[in-house]
């Protein structure tokens, strides 16, 4: 197995008696893009700051290859951690030109010119090198922040909501570019975000955090397809949890029989997603369409069952309308808890 670049073991951070990060553990392999996903206040930033050395943990260890960043005896200074940090607000020096911002951290003066030329090209900033920060756009400033971080040749880059000040299209483009650059340069990264789409798009693997704890770690696909709990499932878009009585790999529910991913017996909760179900006209059914929403590429219909409102995706051209009697079929085995 590949040796870890970074190993976080039972890391905790307290502010007074308040536990902001609660015994989190994970590993990062070299070159991996990793994301910490969680709602506001769950402790993601604190965990990232602790890895950077900007927050002192109360417990646990942080190890970078053979070097201890933090344990009960050691607390390595941030500038000795070979780690770059990219913030939401870019943290660009306003009084320095774009090129001076980029080369700020390069200690060897003889290396500055070559590094600068390479980074300006890599980030598409050649024509802006001599400008001042107020003369370029938000997206370009974020590129400057990335170039400045790469200039110190970090093996690890930590990013705290770096795209949240950018419009959605630019954020997506920059995210993909950064991922490609990190992969090409062999840089490992941790992205902190509350945006599920951003984490899915960027990360090879990710951790879901809530109230200081990591709830599950896996590839985006694992977390979406096989969430371990209903709480984790609820992070990932629209879903509904319905009750059922399981018998092996099938459960009887208010919408009929539903196939399950795992074998179970007795009462269970089943995760339904809008894209995982089909509806069919059925005059005999007691279920009917409550609402139809046109969303451009598709329509989403809602159906009231005795216990829940269930959402199902249909084609944008579907002629289904409010009041139509329908039956629902789950087309793939569903996660259950
Ligand atoms: N310096 C501090 N002193 C006291 N409490 C703090 C401090 N920094 C953070 N906290 C608290 O710790 C908890 C975790 O904060 P943190 O900033 O890590 O969350 P987050 O998941 O990054 O949230 P957001 O996405 O809103 O930035 C929050 O309840 C926050 O109020």
UniProtKB/TrEMBL annotation:
GO terms for molecular function: ABC-type ferric iron transporter activity; ATP binding; ATP hydrolysis activity. Residues 6-236 form the ABC transporter domain. InterPro entries: AAA+_ATPase (IPR003593), ABC_SmlMolc_Importer (IPR050093), ABC_transporter-like_ATP-bd (IPR003439), ABC_transporter-like_CS (IPR017871), ABC_transpr_FbpC (IPR015853), Mo/tungstate-bd_C_term_dom (IPR008995), P-loop_NTPase (IPR027417). Keywords: ATP-binding, Cell membrane, Ion transport, Iron, Iron transport, Membrane, Nucleotide-binding, Transport. This is ABC transporter related protein. PROSITE patterns: ABC_TRANSPORTER_1, ABC_TRANSPORTER_2. Gene3D superfamilies: P-loop containing nucleotide triphosphate hydrolases. It comes from Lentisphaera araneosa HTCC2155. One of its GO terms (cellular component) is membrane. Pfam families: ABC_tran. One of its GO terms (biological process) is quaternary ammonium group transport.
